[in-house]
Design a protein that fits this description.
Layout lengths: L1 H8 L8 H14 L4 H7 L6 H6 L9 H16 L1
Length: 80
Amino acid sequence: MTFGMALKRMGFEGRHVPHGTCHAVATGLKEMGCPGGWIEMQLSHKLPGIQGVYTHPEHMALEQRPAMMQAWADRLFSTG
């Protein structure tokens, strides 16, 4: 909700929603070759089926996730 309010205050109301940012980040990270599981964990998505019940991914790939997000930040600043 906070991100949605920030977008509204910046003049993006009706043109962009926070979930759209998730789509863009997930697509970009996948295009960069990041494992889908890491992306899902970064977006706090629950694993499907029985995995989602018994597997708690908050600690999985913890060391790799900062590097993945740094690569994403590097991509944003190199194409801007």
